[in-house]
Specification:
Length: 235
């Protein structure tokens, strides 16, 4: 299991590069394979589209059982909404499965925005493909009530155009409209861009599946154009 980070070469860890170099076979989602194809010369590469995670996990395990070194790649960290879970669940007892961590979107986006994750935070995916929407709503309500910084993954897509607007409404029940919000789109890729706004002024139309949304807590502020959540140090 190899985490590729957000997509930029600079955020690939040395361990990830070493693991890819040793692999006989690389398995992954087509978009992620394209990000690292220059590292895959001479290797067997197996790629597939969205919603094929279980198929990729089973195929990788089948190939590994034949004695080949298989690298299953995930963007970000494989243990954060990635492929580590299904592979470990399906792996037979005794099969060695190593997990190579990667920079997840929350960390990469936070670094671009400033220091918004300096205090307790929650990461919530707005995708209801595998999680009931009612469960997601309860998590949003709880995180907003507890004044967590909230990182939203998969905030909006063509099939889920209203989820972010609903999430914002839920959070606004517990947070002031002036709450600082950071948006990062295409983090670590050629079209990378970021923006700092507020919960009241958040334009959901600017957000898509390639955007990470970070909603500050009640103490988060903007310092010299950067998003900062104070940890509590006396400065």
């Amino acid at each position: 299991m190899v985490g590729l980070g957000p997509g930029a070469e600079r955020t690939l860890t040395a361990e990830a590069l070493e693991t890819l170099a040793r692999a006989d076979v690389v398995v992954g989602y087509t978009t992620y394979i394209k990000l690292i194809e220059h590292h895959l010369a001479g290797k067997e590469v197996i790629s597939s589209g969205m919603k094929k995670e279980v198929d990729r996990a089973m195929l990788a395990l089948e190939i590994a059982a034949k004695g080949k070194h298989v690298a299953v790649v995930s963007s970000g960290d494989p243990g954060v909404y990635g492929m580590a879970g299904p592979v470990l669940e399906a792996a037979p007892a005794g099969m060695e499965v190593d997990i190579v961590p990667g920079v997840t979107a929350a960390n990469a986006a936070a670094a671009l925005l400033g220091a918004p994750l300096m205090h307790d935070f929650a990461v919530i995916s707005l995708s209801d493909l595998l999680t009931p929407w009612e469960t997601i709503v309860r998590r949003l309500e709880a995180a907003a009530y507890a004044d967590f910084i909230i990182v939203l993954y998969n905030p909006r897509s063509r099939g889920r155009k209203d989820h972010l607007a609903t999430a914002r409404s839920i959070i606004l029940e517990k947070r002031d409209g002036s709450t600082v919000v950071g948006l990062v789109r295409n983090c670590g890729r050629a079209e990378e861009g970021s923006k700092i706004t507020t919960l009241a002024q958040l334009n959901v139309e600017e957000v898509d599946m390639f955007t990470t949304v970070i909603i500050g807590n009640s103490c988060t502020k903007v310092v010299n154009g950067r998003m900062v959540t104070p940890r509590g140090y006396a400065l």
